[in-house]
Amino acid sequence: MTPSPLPPESRWNRLVRVARLAPDxxxxxxxxxxxxxxAALALGRRAPVSLLDLLAGRALGVACILALSAIAxxxxxxxxxxxxLAGGEDxxxxxxxxxxxxLALAN
Length: 107
What we know:
The structure is a single chain. The chain has helices at about 10-20, 35-45, 50-80, 100-105. The protein is mainly alpha-helical and about 110 residues long. The longest helix is centred in the middle third of the chain and has 32 residues, at about 50-80.
């Protein structure tokens, strides 16, 4: 704690010293029923939910299902082409542009 720039016998320093010596008369425990009131307030007020909030989770689930089904339906063909089994093609060399290869496979 930094020392006060005021002189030691200033009114402010005397007030602070006396305030530190005063006993704390506040209650240390919550009043009876406080927890029940807090729980009732927390559970009673629900934030309004928009339609977008309701549909966002479902849309994410549908998108994941569609992505997984697309991968499952095309996995065998992609694995066959990338491993070089389609028509005696060479396997994918290391360092080749993968995007160009995938676009060439789409033709």
